[in-house]
Amino acid sequence: MKRAVYTGSFDPITNGHMDIIRRASEIFDVLIVSVLNNKEKTPLFSVEERVKILEEATKDLPNVQIDSFSGLLVDYAQEKDLHVIVRGLRAITDFEYELQMAQTNRMLSHGKIDTVFLTTSLEYAYLSSSAIKQIASFDGDITPCVPDFVADLIYEKYRQKKLSDNRNV
User: Which residues form the Cytidyltransferase-like domain (predicted)?
Assistant: First the structure.
């Protein structure tokens, strides 16, 4: 059985992420999509919220499992007995960073973990979670960038944030 892991912050999940998830789920028998709990970032959504969002977004993909982790990806992959990491590439700048990470993960795993790169479909190449959050924070239209229910959740987060900020003034 071919199993792989696709990890990220997914804060928020974008249509570009969904493109990679769908395509990877066609290549592998089991794809584990795991949310990285990065303590160095201040996310819009909690890890638990991101897991629930991913579960909803991938409910039509029976071979996709959702999880979360913190720490080194290579340790997580070894713990789950996974030998393939899936990464999406939007541009050459992504490749430089991702190649370095792939080589590091291969070295740390003593050659037991490989990375497979999928290039993002052209219609999603411009997407980034950071840009989507910035657009949404100014009430811009993010509906072409994320699943519809995710757009609603993001707008609600920013409404709550604005209400909270107004109370603190």
Answer: 5-134
